């Protein structure tokens, strides 16, 4: 029997768990980074593969990274959709894996902090609390909004948080540590939709890509090569007239594909959702309307001073230095990791 996490038994008795649409991030209060980050997915062996699976001594339920390795042999399900838990039985399987396999804790000896997504229905929060107390017997349960926690970890209490995960994007205003659900903006465009759009764009270029089988490969292309253009029309014209934007990418089967204007065309859907046939405001317009709808005192505070919105993605937090002008035009400067480099380099 594996030993329990010693820190959890000694001085790290507060477990932190962030249940996202794409990933679960869990660890202990006081740590700088999550102890474990794994896909929020549950797989069950398909009937026609039962014989081969028994040879590999698989369990009835497979959770997390192993589902990706065995995706062709499993019937997979995603218990969280757009940040909201939809399948509680599968979610309990995910929590079992997080608490017992990843963190190796004894829940009754711990308290737990659960992140609460924007616009989460009250009944979902109550159900989650019920499971934490009655199934896992945690000593205490606390819920905190993801946007508030994002600012606190940066030493801030006031800011504008843009949460863009796998399935949905939210813009959440926070003032003095309090969020405003009635002012929170939502857009059903996020990482999964950008990846799907990139599949379409590459297919139009002539590459034979399967939306299901090649989805993870295209996601990696997106994360390594895509960027947001400052001037979309100018960048597109540059891509038509030169090859400076073209990058090569080697697929798992050894094929090499060229990715050009698709590098910025795909993420442009975050700002112009009509590109993928989604109605509604893009990210920049959501930020503007969010501030405009605040009460006059807070609105003036946001317009007259520099505000640092925080962009949280499925696996990271990025600071967006923005000088908010006294008008509707908002210019975003997105700073990616150093490994991304310049899009033209």
TrEMBL record:
Ranges that cross the membrane: none
Annotated SUPFAM superfamilies: Actin-like ATPase domain
Main location: cytoplasm
Biological process per Gene Ontology, one example term: actin filament organization
Pfam families in the record: Actin
Highest taxon of the lineage: Eukaryota
Cellular localization per UniProt: Cytoplasm, Cytoskeleton
Keywords annotated in UniProt: Actin-binding, ATP-binding, Cytoplasm, Cytoskeleton, Nucleotide-binding
Annotated GO MF terms: actin binding; ATP binding
Classification via SMART domains: ACTIN
Example of a GO cellular component annotation carried by this entry: Arp2/3 protein complex
Assigned protein family: Belongs to the actin family. ARP2 subfamily.
The protein's name: Actin-related protein 2
